[in-house]
């Protein structure tokens, strides 16, 4: 069967990695006092690092960024024997650590309550962006768009029709009014990121911006969405993108040089993250990087995301529906909490459905280009906070 070659290949890979790690840590490197292991992955690194620490009398420190068995479950299914074995292995070996670092408060609590790891041995260290994630200057933005123009034009996922390409011009240090809004989404194209939610939301936004009355059409900007990253589901979603027929929205995929990605985040007006976490306990590093650039984010809602995103509750629970009286199919945007008082210093919104995300896009981009939109106000404030804090998030 096809399962046998997969198991054999996995066994060969584990054996090879075990040999390489043992040689590197136990022989090639000087005797350590501590061995720090970031997980996932945990096979075979947990066993190898513990064995080296036992032999060389070093302390074993585990940096928990997620639970490896939950990622394996996405591929093999939660009831797979491999996943059950991986769960037991990770729990058993994880308990052998002398000290632990957790990426969220929720993960620290989970490790203590579910796997019996002593709470006093767990320290919570939230991720922080590297220093090169920062707001981009207008000159950097203009140079980046010139470099990306061929790639964005040639993207296999480009939208047919009037594609609203990037038309922003600079007048000194000011953007042109009425310019296209640049939205960035970084994805690994994996099952824990339902990218279809964003595509459905963009379709609804396009209907609102296209079919609204003339006054409303001026309030909603054209949108260029640049999607970065590589992964197993990319071809599937690019096929969906090619089938879209949009008038006010254009979608492009791009694989950027390492130095261009921070510049793109620093140049964007809004970020979107569909990550939902395989374990429900980790946080998306891509949002951390966006915040380092002073970029507000619309992120998928799940339990621990509140440790990172300060939600603007005015845009919670919104929806976009297509329908209306007398057979007209004009879309209706509902933001039932719009009149609520905004939370202190929000840095984004959280969505749970395409309709809610579409309503948030409408709500935060309304009035964009004139400096009056929520997205622009949020970005200006967040960049001011970065500057006041010496370029670092607090």
From TrEMBL:
Where is this chain's protein located in or outside the cell? Endoplasmic reticulum membrane
- Stored Pfam families: Glyco_trans_1_4
Q: Does the keyword Metal-binding apply?
A: no
Topology class, membrane: Single-pass membrane protein
Q: Please, which domain of life does this record's source organism belong to?
A: Eukaryota
Which GO terms of the molecular function aspect are on file? mannosyltransferase activity
The pathway to which it is assigned is: Protein modification; protein glycosylation
One GO cellular component term, please give it. Answer: endoplasmic reticulum membrane
The protein's UniProt keywords, in alphabetical order, are:
Endoplasmic reticulum, Glycosyltransferase, Membrane, Transferase, Transmembrane, Transmembrane helix
Query: Which PANTHER family does the record associate with it?
Result: BETA1,4 MANNOSYLTRANSFERASE, CHITOBIOSYLDIPHOSPHODOLICHOL BETA-MANNOSYLTRANSFERASE
Q: What is this protein called?
A: Chitobiosyldiphosphodolichol beta-mannosyltransferase
Species: Micromonas pusilla (Picoplanktonic green alga)
